[in-house]
Amino acid sequence: MQVNDLGLGGVVEIIPKKFGDARGFFSETYQRQRFLDAGITQDWMQDNQSFSAEKGTLRGLHFQVAPVAQDKLIRVLKGAIFDVAVDIRNGSPTYGKWVSCELSAEKFNQLLIPRGFAHGFLTLVPDVEVLYKVSAPYSPECDRGVRWNDPAIGVAWPLEPGQQPVLSGKDAQAPMLADIASQITF
Asked: What CA–CA distance (Å, rounded) separates 73 from 177?
């Protein structure tokens, strides 16, 4: 397993080993002891899977607040995404900064996003399936979001000129970072 630090508060890219032959391949995409040996100590509680039919579907930027803040381990089963983590920990030296990583079924990579970060992704091709582990269950009462195009964050989403992403109503109306500043502390 290869672990690449993306330079933003514990956000790392993980590339599991693949073993292949004429039949296909096998991989341990998560093995607790190997993760512990790499310093990744999250205790995963739930797996979630999403499907996005259209290229240009944007999901996020999502997070949960305490007492059920979530760490996430994201990987793509089919297709490719532009995956983003935004530091929303009030008082953090990297508050409001973001990092991205292209995740794809072909690259076979994963992204670890610690609690205290908002997460979102843009599909780069049609028919994308994403699987992610979370360290806490979904809680509607603690579910929050930040506007995907907040200029204070300035994510450089790889949209074609004039292209508008496919958004949920909730994501289109999410508050700006300045409006949620006190919800998570460093």
From this structure: 23
Q: For residue 119, indicate whether it is catalytic.
A: no
Catalytic residue among 62, 95, 119, 138: 62
DSSP count for the chain of H helices, then E strands: 2, 13
Nearest to 183 by CA among 89, 93, 87, 71: 89
Cβ distance 78 to 97 under 8 Å? no
- The whole-model pTM stands at 0.93
Among residues 30, 119, 132, 138, which one is catalytic? 132
Give the whole-angstrom CA distance, residue 28 versus residue 65: 30
CA 73 – CA 110 distance, rounded (Å): 7
pLDDT tens profile 112-171? 999 999 999 999 999 999 999 999 999 999 999 999 999 999 999 999 898 999 999 999
For 4, the token pair is 């690449």
Q: Which of 115, 94, 129 is nearest to 43 (CA)?
A: 115
